[in-house]
Write a structure and sequence with these properties.
Number of strands: 14
CATH topology of the largest domain: TIM Barrel
Largest sheet: 8 strands, parallel, barrel
Bound molecules: flavin mononucleotide
CATH superfamily of the largest domain: Luciferase-like domain
Strand content: 5-15%
CATH architecture of the largest domain: Alpha-Beta Barrel
Number of helices: 16
Strand order of the largest sheet: 1-2-3-4-9-10-11-14
Radius of gyration: 23 Å
Helix content: 25-40%
Distance between the termini: 29 Å
Length: about 475
């Protein structure tokens, strides 16, 4: 297979106000002016475009949580997505621009109108990330005149109908609506715009949209979620699934599960991409990268909590001292899978986020040790710092450019992932280092583009032409 025919990585970039690691912003060199700093944004988005990324991803949050103990320094603040998308569109030429909306608190007409407008202003570079909000978390509801966040079934019933209406509106004008007939004075053909006359459980929408049909035809949809309903939603609608990363075994099984659901919807598994968030510590040398990771981990001020370590590993470690070495106490091979089938997992009361595919927490310990470079001297305090700063759905990867590229390539070739969504731990060095040290390695291996040869997000991703 020639280089040009090889399956290609998809790479997104997401900026968090003070980075995606909980304590890295405390570094003297970190730039913490975040997503309200137009100059920082311009520089970083252009860096991602210099790295030929597929898209710039704008995350979202509509809750107010000034006291969050999990918060990164500036995480409480999330600037409004379409506003940032318009700015990103104006300062770039080729990179895709993806906006996140929480469907639960959004209106389909406004959403279709905004994303169609963005698609026009970017000449077909817009993408829509649809999430539903975490069940049981009611902070956002209080900002939207609601008393509670809906449960999983209700919020996905809403999201399904919401998405159908958005895409019906986006398709409500035929492409040949424009007459521009100066002789007769007919500018557009009103017969080409169609009412959608939607009457559903949640929405009543007439249409058509008051924005011309988007250049991409069908705007790529991204989705993240953990429930069975999320998996079904993604199988119907998503072009990209934003996934967790929990180790090779877990992610291979996740990948097969997610892709295996597409055929029932008449979809090609090669046309949906699974991308985990990716936080990394990369430097010119392995030694430097590891030293930086250690330096950042040491900023952790949290009091050592034996129960947090016990929960994380899945065995009782309450009598262990923080100074003891992990490998003196835990034999990772003793944590090998004991549960296999879905029934076993359900009987054991495991939540899928941890154990759905592997039936143990070996992955957690392995990933932590890997982050410290396989260092035999990793103590329980180090492990606790890792947990305290754990980016939730990701595994931090630490190393020189070649090692980080090896990590990505191996998981890509093993069909655990189709690419990564780059979440730098802080601004600004890590993104620049990724572009300068990791991207050239990926290009050399023939798994990432060496120039933009396409101009729309659909085409960057290699999605088939819209039906
Ligand atoms: C990998 C991953 C990343 C996510 N990122 C965000 C995010 O940036 N903003 C957000 O509001 N929710 C985010 N979520 C939450 C989900 O989008 C979703 O709203 C939540 O998981 C509830 O859906 P569920 O009940 O299907 O799990 C993320 C979830 C996952 C698994």
């Amino acid at each position: 297979m020639s280089t040009s025919e090889r399956r290609q990585l998809k790479i997104g970039y997401s900026i968090w106000p003070t980075g995606h690691h909980r304590t890295a912003w405390r570094l003297p060199e970190a730039v913490n002016s975040g997503t309200t700093d137009a100059a920082l944004l311009a520089k970083s988005i252009r860096t991602a475009e210099r790295g030929l990324f597929d898209y710039f991803f704008i995350g979202n949050s509509v809750k107010s949580d000034p006291h969050s103990t999990r918060a990164n320094g500036n995480e409480t603040f999330k600037i409004e997505g379409y506003t940032l998308a318009g700015y990103a569109a104006a300062i770039t030429e080729r990179i895709g621009v993806v906006v996140t909306i929480n469907a639960t608190y959004s209106d389909p007409y406004n959403t279709a109108r905004a994303i169609a407008s963005l698609d026009h202003l970017t000449h077909g570079r817009a993408g829509l990330n649809v999430i539903t909000g975490v069940a049981g978390s009611h902070e956002a509801a209080a900002n939207f005149s609601r008393s509670a966040h809906p449960d999983t079934e209700d919020k996905y019933d809403w999201a399904d109908e919401f998405t159908d209406v958005v895409y019906a509106l986006l398709g409500s004008w035929e492409p040949d609506w424009l007459l521009d007939d100066r002789a007769t004075g007919r500018f557009l053909d009103p017969a080409k715009g169609h009412r959608i006359d939607h009457e559903g459980k949640f929405f009543s929408v007439r249409g058509p949209l008051n924005v011309p049909p988007p250049p991409q035809g069908r705007i790529p949809l991204i989705h993240a979620g953990t429930s069975e309903r999320s998996f079904e939603y993604g199988a119907r609608y998503a072009d990209i699934r934003f996934s967790p990363y929990r180790g090779p075994e877990w992610n291979r099984r996740y990948y097969d599960d997610i892709k295996g659901r597409l055929a029932a919807h008449g979809r090609d598994p090669e046309h949906q991409f699974i991308l985990p968030g990716f936080t990394f510590f990369v430097a010119d040398t392995t030694r430097e990268a590891r030293a930086k990771y250690r330096e950042i981990q040491r900023f952790t001020t949290d009091e050592y909590l034996p129960h947090a370590v016990s929960d994380f590993v899945g065995i009782d470690l309450s009598s262990v001292k923080p100074t003891e070495r992990v490998l003196d106490v835990i034999d990772p091979s003793a944590l090998r899978p004991t549960l296999t089938g879905a029934d076993d997992l359900a009987a054991a009361g495991n939540t899928w986020t941890i154990d759905r595919y592997t039936g143990n927490k070996l992955w957690a310990v392995e990933l932590a040790l890997e982050a410290y470079g396989g260092d035999e001297a990793v103590t329980f305090r180090d492990l606790f710092n890792y947990i305290a700063n754990f980016p939730g759905n990701q595994a931090p990867v630490v190393g020189g450019g070649r090692e980080v590229a090896d990590w990505i390539e191996q998981r890509f070739e093993d069909r655990e992932i189709d690419g990564v969504k780059v979440f730098p731990p802080y601004s600004e060095y890590p993104l620049e280092a990724f572009v300068d040290l990791v991207v050239p390695e990926l290009q050399r291996r023939g798994i990432f583009r060496t120039e933009y040869t396409t101009s729309t997000l659909r085409d960057h991703l290699g999605l088939p032409a819209a039906p």
